[in-house]
């Protein structure tokens, strides 16, 4: 052993330890899917190549500095890996630079963070301890090479990186063009090279606004007019049915459709929403998909307010809060509505205090507007029942008609609920997250039932329409094994995409023709749909969504990872499925998804360009209506 240590430089030992450690974390802690032997080899090869790239720099340093450099780079690299793992367990995604700008959200994540820690995470730092031990002077594992030797050692870096890129392109052609799927990037080039790539993309997108001009917005306007159904086909019997009525929009945190009609030990999870879904005065879209990305709830707000897609990296609420928009609150303000948001969290979370002001909200009732006590708060803060109850007085004080958005908190990861407040048992699986999910869902269901009664008691109900929408998933695919147990089937890409369906219910007191509709729609369609119900025509608006009640709609709902859903097909993970059966289409029929795939890519790019380039500053929405 002593002989080996004297003949093997520490930077080589660190490379092997760090590379193999990272592979094990990829394979068994991230649980990245492996489809073939080539992917397995790349998953092993790329962390070793990345580690060598970093540690080989030490050969150019003086012996004393070599050891210091290797100690700290091993620690920093391990921290990067660890933080990505924690982030992945919550969001099934990897950290991007825009997400780091959302750091002021971290103060509210303490409980969630502790839930995401596992005892085996200690393994991530095992090689750090060994490298620090071996870097002691008595082992003398420094490198003393002539200049030619240093150049040769560095040249190996470029050979390894080139080999990694070539293998990645062979395994996944156009990998860097399909950058919306970060898991493919990490699997093929490694998490450290992925972060370098992300930094490059950040620089590119920051420059995009500087060099943008008004020429592209005309191209996008033409595209939207050509792909949107004719105005005559957008009309429906519901046009203007809610004219001059209040709109109460409830964003129900982390609520997915599989909760409907579910039972735990014979007890309904959501009895109120189950009944509401079937009532004649409620229109329910059972194939409504959330379309959020890394911004989660803020993304759902952004999509609904603007009918634009969220960015693939970070939250628009943070990265582009100062852009020009033609948002729903602004439009309603011009029509005489008072607009407000109710959310019992701190005003700066997701940068809401800045973004809400920019998109035209008149009032933001944040946590300072509520009486929060130890008795009425748990998890992320004020419980939903107290939240709705304390909000009624503010609703009564608003000028009518009003548009008020409520964002609930109780049904939020890690789905903590005091035992005495639980009216349904926990589920029994290997996932603590899924087990608790049903209890907080039941609590929020009870809170919504009370809220409806409180609206009636306050005299607000009859003059309002109430919209309920799930903002994003609550159970990520990190819990697919437990979800498979609950559903009684394997969670493959088709099932995983179907799990992205969330509630969208429009409750219209006095309406008698409601029911469940099976049309495929998404959050991008909410803005034009609400304007349609309110009888407000925005002919000059630029939106990627359509009125859900139109006779003809766009022929797909696109998700940010490149998946999409149509009436006939579902495309996910490079596979085209028959939407009605869930079976992959034979190769000769799978071509049917290709034209739609191109449309999705084009539409996402157009929406991204609007945001990155702040293109609406070049567009006169008022002039375009004339």
From TrEMBL:
Gene Ontology MF terms in the entry: hydrolase activity; metal ion binding; transferase activity
Active-site feature positions: 297
Keywords of the record: Cell membrane, Hydrolase, Manganese, Membrane, Metal-binding, Transferase, Transmembrane, Transmembrane helix
Protein's recorded name: Sulfatase-like hydrolase/transferase
Organism: Halobacillus litoralis
Subcellular location: Cell membrane
Phylogenetic placement of the source organism: Bacteria, Bacillati, Bacillota, Bacilli, Bacillales
Cited Pfam families: Sulfatase
SUPFAM superfamilies reported for this sequence: Alkaline phosphatase-like
Gene Ontology CC entries for this record: plasma membrane
Positions bound to Mn(2+): 253, 297, 471-472
Transcription recorded as keyword: no
Domain of life: Bacteria
Similarity remark: Belongs to the LTA synthase family.
């Amino acid at each position: 052993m002593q002989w080996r240590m004297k003949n093997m430089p520490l930077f080589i030992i660190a490379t092997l330890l760090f590379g193999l450690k990272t592979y094990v974390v990829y394979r068994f802690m991230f649980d990245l899917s492996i489809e073939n032997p080539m992917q397995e080899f790349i998953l092993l090869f790329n962390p070793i190549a990345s580690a060598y790239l970093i540690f080989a720099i030490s050969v150019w340093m003086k012996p004393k500095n070599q050891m210091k450099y290797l100690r700290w780079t091993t620690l920093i690299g391990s921290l990067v890996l660890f933080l990505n793992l924690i982030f992945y367990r919550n969001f099934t995604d990897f950290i991007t630079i825009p997400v780091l700008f959302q750091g002021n959200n971290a103060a509210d994540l303490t409980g969630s963070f502790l839930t995401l820690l596992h005892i085996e995470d200690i393994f991530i730092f095992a090689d750090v301890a060994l490298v620090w031990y071996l870097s002691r002077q008595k082992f003398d594992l420094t490198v003393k090479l002539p200049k030619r030797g240093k150049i040769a050692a560095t040249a190996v870096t470029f050979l390894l990186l080139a080999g990694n890129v070539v293998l990645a392109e062979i395994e996944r052609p156009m990998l860097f063009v399909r950058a919306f799927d970060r898991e493919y990037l990490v699997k093929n080039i490694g998490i450290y090279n992925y972060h370098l790539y992300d930094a490059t993309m950040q620089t590119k997108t920051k420059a995009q606004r500087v060099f943008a001009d008004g020429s592209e917005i005309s191209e996008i306007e033409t595209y939207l007019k050509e792909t949107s159904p004719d105005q005559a086909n957008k009309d429906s019997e519901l046009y203007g049915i809610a004219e001059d009525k209040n709109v109460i929009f409830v964003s129900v945190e982390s609520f997915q459709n599989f909760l409907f009609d579910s039972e735990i030990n014979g007890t309904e999870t959501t009895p109120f929403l189950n009944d509401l879904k079937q009532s004649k005065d409620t229109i329910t879209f059972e194939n409504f998909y959330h379309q959020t990305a890394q911004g989660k709830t803020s993304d759902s707000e952004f999509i609904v307010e603007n009918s634009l897609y969220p960015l693939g990296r970070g939250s628009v609420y943070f990265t582009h809060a100062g852009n020009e928009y033609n948002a729903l609150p602004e439009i309603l303000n011009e029509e005489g509505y008072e607009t407000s948001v109710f959310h019992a969290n701190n005003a700066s979370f997701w940068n809401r205090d800045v973004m809400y002001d920019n998109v035209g909200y008149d009032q933001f009732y944040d946590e300072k507007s509520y009486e929060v006590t130890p008795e009425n708060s748990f998890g992320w803060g004020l419980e939903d029942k107290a939240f709705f109850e304390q909000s009624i007085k503010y609703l009564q004080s608003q000028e009518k008609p009003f548009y008020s958005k409520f964002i609930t908190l109780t049904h939020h990861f890690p789905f903590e609920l005091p035992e005495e407040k639980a009216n349904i048992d926990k589920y029994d699986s290997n996932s603590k997250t899924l087990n608790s999910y049903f209890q907080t869902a039941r609590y929020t269901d009870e809170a919504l039932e009370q809220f409806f009664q409180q609206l009636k008691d306050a005299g607000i109900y009859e003059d309002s329409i109430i919209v309920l929408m799930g903002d994003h998933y609550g159970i990520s695919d990190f819990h697919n094994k437990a979800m498979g147990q609950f559903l009684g089937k394997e969670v493959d890409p088709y099932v995983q995409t179907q799990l992205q369906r969330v509630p969208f219910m429009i409750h219209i007191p006095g309406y008698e023709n409601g029911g469940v509709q099976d049309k495929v729609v998404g959050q991008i369609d909410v803005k034009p749909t609400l304007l349609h119900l309110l009888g407000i025509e925005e002919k000059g608006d630029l939106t990627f969504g359509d009125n859900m009640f139109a006779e003809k709609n766009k022929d797909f709902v696109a998700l940010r990872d490149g998946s999409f859903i149509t009436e006939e097909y579902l495309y996910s993970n490079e596979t085209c499925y028959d939407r009605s059966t869930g079976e992959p289409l034979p190769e000769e029929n799978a071509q049917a998804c290709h034209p739609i795939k191109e449309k999705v890519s084009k539409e996402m790019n157009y929406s991204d360009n609007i945001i990155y380039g702040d293109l609406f500053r070049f567009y006169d929405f008022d002039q375009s209506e004339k």
